[in-house]
Amino acid sequence: MVQLDNMLEVHHIKKHYQTKNGPVYAIGDISFKVEKSEFLVIVGSSGAGKTTLLRILAGLIEPTSGEIVFRGQPVVGPPRAFAVVFQDYVRSLYPWFSVHRNVELPLVNLISDRAERRSLVDQMLERVGLRSQAHKHPQELSGGQQQRVAIARALAYRPEVLIMDEPFASLDAQTRSDLEDLMLQLKRDSGMTVIFVTHDVDEAVYMGDRILVLSRSPSTIATTVATSLPLPRDQITTKALPAFSAARTAVLTAIREQSSA
């Protein structure tokens, strides 16, 4: 289990939208803390507000009320120390640029020295196993490779917090497993904090140190499950552990209780 050291605090976040038929309440009242180097996973049924919550955490939208605090300071707008990877990796990549340029482009205003930028991009592509594909364009790559490009671009920011919204949902089972293992390795190597949304309970338990299960909308935290699984993890041996089965059952039970509530 990771060593606990508060990095991000969420205080009584609420979110509602005004419509012609009155307010729609997406998030009821959510509070939690995220520890340094923790892999926190958020799950819940469809419409539970998971993506809305992530966008608030990333500073992309404002809550109706409540506060996000990062290292003791309120989050107002996207923090420089955060990076985000969304599910729709195809739309996030520029098809007319090479893989290398796609990863480099967001760094242009951050690192003025071109040689330094290119060296950093090379390092990130090496880490995700795409150094040899740097000259290609996104449409020449598989779906899993395209998502690796999106991950490399996020890592190039050297984020303290990486926020991921169902990044592997549209991938086949083998590619998904490979990227799960890659993310766990990258997280261990960098020490970054990861906040990860998924619909897949097995993925949540396999990757997470702790899992928040959201209630139905307007969402609150229905329960929290700590996985307590040893590191490093393996797709076969880890999933055969009694602790994996126990955590999986706890998460599934909580989700089903919320779905039938």
Short description:
By secondary structure, the protein is of the alpha/beta class. The chain is 34% helix and 25% strand. It has two domains: 177 residues, P-loop containing nucleotide triphosphate hydrolases (Rossmann fold), CATH 3.40.50.300; 71 residues, no CATH class.
Description:
- This protein has 261 residues and is an alpha/beta fold.
- The chain has two domains: 6-81 and 160-260, 3-Layer(aba) Sandwich (Rossmann fold); 88-158, no CATH class.
- The protein has helices at residues 50-57, 89-92, 99-104, 114-127, 143-156, 173-190, 201-207, 242-259, and strands spanning 6-19, 22-35, 39-43, 65-70, 73-74, 82-85, 161-165, 193-197, 210-214, 221-226.
- The strands form two sheets. It has a six-stranded mixed β-sheet, with helices on both faces. Strands 2-1-4-5 form a four-stranded antiparallel β-sheet, with helices on one face.
- β9 (210-214) and β10 form a beta hairpin.
- α4 (114-127) packs across α5 (143-156) and α7 (201-207) packs across α8.
- The longest helix has 18 residues, at 173-190.
- The radius of gyration is 19 Å and the shape is globular.
Spell out the key features of this protein.
Rossmann fold, four-stranded antiparallel beta sheet, alpha/beta, 34% helix, 8 helices, 2 domains, 261 residues
